[in-house]
Amino acid sequence: MALREGALRAKLLLCSRTLSKFASFSFARSLSELVSSQSVTSKPPEIADDHLIYTQEHSALKEALRKLIDQEINPYVDQWEAEGTFPAHKIFKILGNAGFLGVNKPVEYGGLGLDFSYSVAVAEELGNIRCGGIPMAIGVQSDMATPALARFGSDELKKEFLLTSIMGDKVACLGVSEVGAGSDVSSIKTKAVKKGDEYVINGGKMWTTSGTQADWMCLLANTSDGPPHKNKSLICLPMNLPGVHIARKISKMGMWSSDTAEVFFDDVRVPCKNIIGQEGMGFTYQMLQFQEERLWAVANIVTTMDNIIQETINYTRQRRIFQLPVLHHQAVHFRLAELQTEVELLRSLLYRATAMYIKGNDVTKLASMAKLKAGRLARELSDSCLQYWGGMGYTSDVPVSRFYRDCRLLSIGAGADEVMLGIICKYMDTLPKK
Ligand SMILES: Cc1cc2nc3c(=O)[nH]c(=O)nc-3n(C[C@H](O)[C@H](O)[C@H](O)COP(=O)(O)OP(=O)(O)OC[C@H]3O[C@@H](n4cnc5c(N)ncnc54)[C@H](O)[C@@H]3O)c2cc1C
Questions:
Q1: What are the pLDDT digits (tens) for 44-61?
Q2: Which GO terms label this protein's molecular function in UniProt (predicted)?
Q3: Which end of the chain has fewer surrounding CB within 10 Å, N or C?
Q4: Is the CB of 252 inside a 6 Å radius of any atom of ligand 1?
């Protein structure tokens, strides 16, 4: 048994080395076959000696993704940032072919059938993309618009929307926030009224990531007049239906390469079978979906924070002031050490929450704490690092200024800091009852 396991691992590593030479991105799919055959025939892969939750397979997956990022994405990021959008269909097809858009989704719908820790590994690696907008759009596709569909959707819906999104044939977006409802999700106004075997949808969505390019939306709408937590449903809405209008592409302070849309629905008719799971359960499904979204966002930002610290070290080491490298001033290297310590603390919380989540625990409290801390730390870190770049930090030519703009979103999107504090207080039983 041990021999067989060793052989499999060796094959996997060999595969990974071959990949590093020839950059064959179909590797991730063969990796999943190896991992799943291991779990059937022998013990699950062992956690690597130098890691809390990752096995050698996680590392190999990350290595493969890194090559794809360096070849297919990073060389074009500056151009896409300047253009205010990126070719989502082209990039998602490349990622989908390689298996990176559904690592924890079922194999029968194109996923790799691995656990959520592999999604965290992928999110971490996507943090090496040299902007925040593209990883965010990829995250919407893989871990924000699709978890509820994967868990509760019908076979027919999953074939039409999940499989095609995982393979990168369709671009997905998530329609929760509205002009009048962001933090308070329960107060959304978009209505889906049942008429025969169709829902007729009226209303609108705001801040829709990938909204100008998306083929379908995971839409949260009110399907009855009942109490706000029980009157909502998630619906798969094709974006090419009559009555779906892209009102505008929103101009933003950061995340430039990710298009953000305002969308209106004017008597849009969708078959009732497009509902995800049970009618009236949409709010609950969305809250569950948020857990993966928040852990994904934390995993993604820890890598970027590492990179920004390292780039600041490199810059301040060669930039001299008062006869010394900037880095040699104690205020600078001590501050960077403090920030790196905070990043490591956040990473530990992320791994703890992930380890508990894949064992089936409710990690709402830990995920909310991690998201809160990530948003606050990213703001602090980007501000401190930018300072040490002096005037160069204030130009748009350096990664630190892009990070400064992009990361500001983390304390607002996917639940603002105050929403996270409210959730944590609920779990601490300190939130005053209404
Ligand atoms: C670039 C971008 C991309 C986005 N992508 C998507 C997407 O793809 N899909 C989607 O559905 N949404 C998306 N959003 C929306 C995002 O999730 C919302 O902006 C967010 O939930 C906050 O909602 P709001 O903007 O309406 O702010 P509001 O709800 O108006 O809140 C304003 C502020 O009030 C404060 N606040 C909130 N709750 C409390 C409280 N309990 N106590 C005290 N203060 C509080 C917070 O500081 C908050 O920032 C995106 C937003 C942006 C900017």
A1: 678 888 899 999 999 999
A2: acyl-CoA dehydrogenase activity; flavin adenine dinucleotide binding
A3: C
A4: yes
182 lines ligand 1 (CB under 6 A): yes
On whether residue 434 sits in a domain, the answer given is no
* Residues 127-146: tens digit of each pLDDT: 999 999 999 999 999 999 99
Range of the domain at 151: 2-166
Same structural domain, 317 and 377: yes
Q: Give 23 or 324, the one with higher predicted confidence.
A: 324
Q: Which residues are part of the catalytic machinery? A: 293
Q: Which atom of ligand 1 is nearest to the CA of 181?
A: 26
Query: Taking the complete model, does pTM exceed 0.90, yes or no?
Result: yes
* Number of independent structural domains in the chain: 3
3-state SS class at 245:
strand
Residues 6+ apart with CB under 8 A from 271: 197, 198, 199
Is 123 near ligand 1, meaning CB less than 6 Å away?
Answer: no
So what's the pLDDT on residue 187?
Answer: 97
Q: Is residue 433 part of a domain?
A: no
Collapsing DSSP to helix, strand or coil, 416 comes out as: coil
Positive or negative, the CA dihedral 93, 96, 101, 106 is: positive
Query: Is the pLDDT reported for residue 13 higher than 90?
Result: no
Answer whether 241's CB lies under 8 Å from 119's CB: no
